[in-house]
Amino acid sequence: MAAFGTYEWAVKNYNIVSGCSHDCKYCYSKEMAIRFKRKKPETWKNEEKLKGAENHTFPKINGQIMFPSSHDITPDNISDSMRIIEQILSGGNKLLIVSKPHMSCISLICNNLKKYKQNILFRFSIGSSNNSTLAFWEPNAPLFEERLESLKFAYNAGFKTSISCEPMLDDNIDDVVEKLSPYVTDSIWIGKMNFLLRRLKMNGHNDKKSINQANKLIDWQSDDNIHALYERLSNNSKIKWKESIKKVVNISLSDESGLDI
Questions:
Q1: Which residues contact 144 (CB under 8 A, 6 or more apart)?
Q2: 3-state secondary structure of 201
Q3: pTM of the model
């Protein structure tokens, strides 16, 4: 049976806060929080610790745990994140750490959790190498140079590394792949931007500029362009395709899995 969403990557996921200071315009977690009245568009960027999150226990499971999945690891929550990360790992679990990385956070994790490095896989979200593009879609997240620096740091410290280019934020994902590949030990996941106009409206970004940029991105993600991208990168052994790409190019949704590190 094919896996979708976060279950392409892990069998379980865990979060410790509601909201995310990165406040990405297209964020699916923000959309869901607003839809179910847990947050408002203007309050999503305020991180609130989930009640009881630190008291969770993590017995060893088969497969890997993803942390986080609905927020990010930021300077505001790094102390709490470190405690949860160590709790997960101390139970013998394999951990997928997903982040638009802050160098201060990644260096702290790497420097303090060296003994667990064989059970950690970093997956850094980098959907463009263009800082203007990143700043537009992900206004409070680190720019490309800091994300690249974080990737290099983890790689040079001997940790397993991977990249998520989901969502792709522009039509030059080849440049991201070229610049990051030397520091990736595992995989580079590529996926389309999903439900963009709906999420922008729900997330409070229904202004003319955002809608125009969204339509440009949607136009670029045409089936023809996705087929061309697949042809260019399909021979790269590090590339893995998210279900949004697989559906377009008609490859089996069960051909790839990120569940094992």
A1: 126, 128, 129, 130, 131, 134
A2: helix
A3: 0.94
